[in-house]
Write a structure and sequence with these properties.
Largest sheet: 11 strands, mixed
Mean pLDDT: 94
Oligomer: single chain
Structural class: alpha/beta
Order of helices and strands: EHEEHEEHEEEEEEHEEEEEEH
Shape: elongated
Low-confidence stretches: none
Radius of gyration: 20 Å
Helix content: 10-25%
Amino acid sequence: MKFQNAVIFFNENKPNVRALAQEACTFLQDRGLPARAITALDGLDASADLLICMGGDGTMLRCARAAAPLNMAVFGVNCGTLGFLAACEISDFKERLEQLLRDECTVNERFMLRAQIIPQDGKPREYLAFNDCVLRAAHPRAFTVNAVFNGKKLPPYFGDGVIISTPTGSTAYSLAAGGPIVEPGVDVLLITPICPHTLHQRPLILPAGGELELVPAFKNKEDGAVLSVDGQINLTLPPGARVKLTRSPLKAKLLCTEERDFFSILNRKLNWGAR
């Protein structure tokens, strides 16, 4: 995949990343690819077809959500701790960018979630999620989540909330809450209960093409729920609001090298299969 114009987004809160971003700009420009550095994703537009993300996994989440509506590919340079979604580390970023320019990277398309908050009256609000959407109480206490999938009621969840994740998000909060690891190419949604108050409720895998509706219910009228999108956008639900979750028509395009396939990253980053 040949690129015409690159934008480098960097997390300016991370030490020395500004200098690294400028170094990457010069590196690409010297090789004939126009590039510029930005620190705000609201300046992103269709004039570029490649977004190079310099930060940790949280920065990658923001970049994926911003790039998907523009059909823009994302190349991640891990400047954080884990770097599960990145294409390379700081130590080898120039070598991997050379591979990118030689068209030796693979584009992995990851489906995303469309989350709609539907109030009892008023206009629905819509959000895009890359990893997951979490429905939780505004204050720490157990509550009920009534769920309907494709018009059929599921047994209600009672506990601290539920995580609805994409396969990409299966290795994030869902995994920490006891959910399964799902290969990113599998077309499914995951429902993972958070601290369920029962011994009989376990994570559930559903076909991604369906429609999942969640309605929180509280014993006290003053209690309320929050929908958290990728752990970065926290939205207070109005009383009586429903949350509708479907597969978004948009996809995140993550660039990766052959050396960083899903299973090797599981082993290196999460010690999967280690003895």
